Amino acid sequence: MFAVRRTDAVLVLVALVWGSSYLVAKSATDVLPVLAVLFARYALGALACGAVVLVRRRAWTRTEVRAGALLGVTQAAVLVLETYGVAHTTAAHAGLLISLTIVLTPPLDRTRPPLPARFYAAALLCVVAVGLIGAGGEGFGLPRGGDLLMLGAAVVRAGHVALVGRVTARHRVDPVHLTTVQMVTGTVLVLPFAVRHFGALAASDAATGSRLLYLALLCGLFAFLAQTWAVQRTSASRASLLLGTEPVWAVATGLVVGGERLTPWAAAGAALLLVGTYWGQAVERAHRDERPAHDDRAPYDAGKPLAGGVPRP
Question: Which of 76, 130, 133, 148 has the highest Cβ tally under 10 A?
């Protein structure tokens, strides 16, 4: 029982760290340009992953390099949209809207059977919730600038997760190697656009530096390694459920630590979104478990330790 509780605690800690990343990223972009924050996050993460690779001393494969470079491009697209989005909305909104990845990913996965109508009912509930969250105090309406960027990030992240699932289903790859290549690829992609902000980055104070380290080391390397360790010691469904508390922690840190607030309409939308995403996740999991034994198509597993920090890049 102690081992089970310890594993659960690690998974909840990972979800908490990921949920808090939106407020930390927003705080960092308040004092630094978005591209400077992205470059620091990628470069520090690449250095940390490189250190782990040197310690482990395992052989690389061409597939890891090729797949890691491709996934690095899609991951960079997610983080660019996500970081610009959180800079123009609240951390609570960002954490809620990005959770749409849960219901957007399964339809993009071509390795699994068609989903039942109940799943799309849950997705429709999420659409209604987004309208409430993005409308402010005016009732139902269209999402605003930062919220739209977070919606775009959720769509691209869903495609990224589906792509990771296809790559890892077809090839045996070392998750640490794949993550390292993604980090290096992201650093290279962001570098040309971040060079002009190096002065601001060098002049940043200790508080800003600690936020950047938090994003790179805790939200990146630590969360990935901790999640991989924990998922190997529990069921995929249990891991998926606990990691799925990320939006709850995003809202909690935004409200309690960041001093943000939700309007009554946005609070109703938040409740609907959490219900919709958990409902959709439960329907997808049950449908996956009912797959006939003779069906050799590899199912999407929301709790599977996908490379690159699954299901979150």
Answer: 133
